[in-house]
């Protein structure tokens, strides 16, 4: 019988999570579920071979698992394994210093608001309508991050909201597909 989660306690220094890119890969898999190497590479704007190497290291460390699937074509999907984390002071220090060396990629751009004014995009203002109606902050942030990769100066706020809605619809469809796969696998 397989354990429901990995009972090994990982210290950050033994994880093979020795750089912030590996943490970003783990975070992406935690937030969005299974992904192919190509999807991870595109989502995080990382070279394919680097992504592949890091995923292999994370799999060897027991943090992720991979499985070959064939939808339209054969591909390898990576899944996060459940695990416990024990942080040591030196591990936290190493992680923080590595993260501080990574340049931030916050995209700034201007939108045309409802009044027709050309203004700086404000993620907090954009997100408030969704937060007030109960949408989880993590879902908003992740979906918006995907949408913001494709925006440009002068996009209307209406176009931005439509793109955001399309991204949410895509994620909902993924949830439905995964639920169907689980149901089929259990029967």
Distance between the termini: 18 Å
Give average pLDDT, whole number.
80
Number of strands: 8
Shape: globular
Q: What is the number of helices?
A: 7
Give the strand order, joined by hyphens, for the main sheet.
2-4-3
The residue ranges in which pLDDT falls below 50 over 5 or more consecutive positions are 1-14
Biggest sheet record: 3 strands, antiparallel
Structural Rg: 19 Å
CATH architecture group name of the largest domain: Orthogonal Bundle
Give the helix proportion (percent range). 40-55%
H/E order of the elements?
A: EHEHHEEEHEEHHEH
List the SSEs and their pairings.
Blueprint (H helix, E strand, L loop, with lengths): L5 E6 L8 H13 L2 E2 H8 L3 H13 L3 E7 L3 E7 L2 E4 L2 H12 L9 E3 L5 E3 L2 H10 L4 H12 L6 E2 H30 L1
Helix pairs in contact: 2-3, 6-7
Describe this structure as you would to a colleague.
By secondary structure, the protein is of the alpha/beta class. It folds into 2 domains: about 5-100, Arc Repressor Mutant, subunit A; about 110-185, no CATH class. The protein is built from 7 helices and 8 strands. The protein has helices spanning about 20-30, 35-45, 50-60, 90-100, 125-130, 135-150, 155-185, and strands spanning about 5-10, 35, 65-70, 75-80, 85, 110, 120, 155. The strands form 3 sheets. The chain has a 3-stranded antiparallel β-sheet. Strands 7-6-8 form a 3-stranded mixed β-sheet. β3 (about 65-70) and β4 form a beta hairpin. α2 packs across α3 and α6 packs across α7 (about 155-185). The protein is globular, with a radius of gyration of 19 Å. Mean pLDDT is about 80; it is low at about 1-15.
């Amino acid at each position: 019988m397989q354990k429901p989660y990995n009972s090994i306690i990982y210290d950050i220094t033994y994880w093979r999570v020795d750089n912030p890119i590996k943490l970003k890969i783990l975070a992406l898999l935690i937030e969005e579920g299974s992904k192919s190497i190509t999807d991870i590479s595109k989502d995080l704007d990382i070279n394919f071979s680097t992504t592949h190497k890091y995923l292999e290291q994370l799999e060897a460390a027991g943090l992720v698992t991979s499985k070959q699937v064939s939808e339209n074509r054969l591909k390898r999907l990576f899944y996060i394994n459940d695990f416990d984390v024990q942080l040591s002071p030196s591990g936290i220090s190493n992680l923080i210093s590595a993260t501080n060396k990574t340049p931030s990629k916050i995209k700034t751009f201007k939108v045309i608001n409802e009044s027709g004014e050309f203004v700086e995009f404000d993620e907090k203002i954009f997100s408030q309508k969704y937060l007030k109606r109960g949408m989880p902050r993590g879902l908003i942030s992740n979906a918006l991050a995907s949408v913001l990769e494709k925006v440009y100066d002068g996009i209307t706020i209406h176009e931005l909201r439509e793109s955001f809605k399309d991204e949410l619809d895509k994620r909902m469809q993924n949830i439905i597909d995964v639920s169907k796969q689980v149901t089929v696998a259990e029967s």
